[in-house]
Design brief:
The structure holds 2 protein chains of 2 kinds. By secondary structure, chain A is an all-beta fold. Chain A is built from no helices and 11 strands. The radius of gyration of chain A is 13 Å and the shape is globular. Chain B is mostly beta strands. In chain B, strands 2, 4, 5, 9, 10 and 11 form a 6-stranded mixed β-sheet that branches. Chain B has a 5-stranded antiparallel β-sheet with strand order 1-3-8-7-6, with no helix packed on it. The chains are: A mainly beta, B mainly beta. At the A-B interface, strand 10 of A face strand 5, strand 9 and strand 10 of B.
């Protein structure tokens, strides 16, 4: 069990640019989640996958955000035409099944200038 | 709507005991989680309650009352390394609803 890994750890980009983040979950975990977190707040749900199927996407998520998990293993989160309000910590988590604890990666901190 | 309330910040003394409360109003309930999050790091799992009562795990214990929509996390023999945010999360219809977290400050 090598844990959940995320890449990159930090990303600084200019407004209007596209960014892509990667998450490698714990290998035997079927479920993969993306969250966004800002200072002093709990994680905000973005989307989740059961294997390769994207089962739910937050209604708060604009169409600039897209996520994939093509082979049911790693996942990518892309943000197009970034805005300053997108600056946050983007957390990936995985779990074995429905009511299992989530295991989080160390996150990708995005700063949009 | 769905709502989870926790105190924003608490202060306690090294070696003492502290209780962090969490109240929730959610459309469904499939369990309650507590996570610890150090500044700049990811949340790490502490405990899970799905039935009423107390779950003890070393220095940490968590209690649940489903009828009251209430849980608490009890930390004993506080150490400086326990300074962190503590997040309460409810599994409501198989989606996690998160509180904003309680920042715990430990003083020597």
């Amino acid at each position: 069990d090598t844990g959940v890994s995320q890449d990159p750890r930090h990303k600084i980009t200019k407004r209007g640019q596209n960014v892509t983040f990667r998450c490698d979950p714990i290998s035997e975990h079927n479920r993969l989640y993306w969250y966004r977190q800002t200072l002093g707040q709990g994680p905000e749900f973005l989307t989740y996958f059961q294997n390769e199927a994207q089962l739910e996407k937050s209604r708060l998520l604009s169409d600039r955000f897209s996520a994939e998990r093509p082979k049911g293993s790693f996942s990518t989160l892309e943000i197009q035409r970034t805005e300053q309000g997108d600056s946050a910590m983007y957390l990936c988590a995985s779990s074995l099944q429905n009511n299992s604890p989530l295991h989080f990666g160390n996150g990708t901190r995005l700063t949009v200038t | 709507g769905q709502n989870i309330d926790q105190p924003t910040e608490m202060t306690a003394t090294e070696g003492a005991i502290v209780q962090i409360n969490c109240t929730y109003q959610t459309s469904g309930f499939n369990g309650l989680f507590w996570y610890q999050q150090h500044a700049g790091e990811a949340p790490t799992f502490l405990s899970y309650n799905v039935l009423d009562g107390l779950e003890e795990k070393g220095r940490f214990s968590s209690f649940l009352s489903r009828s009251k929509g209430y849980s608490y996390l009890l930390l004993k023999e506080l150490q400086m390394k326990d300074s962190a945010s503590y997040l309460c999360a409810v599994n409501s219809n198989y989606q996690l609803i998160w509180g904003a977290g309680t920042k715990l400050i430990i003083k020597p």
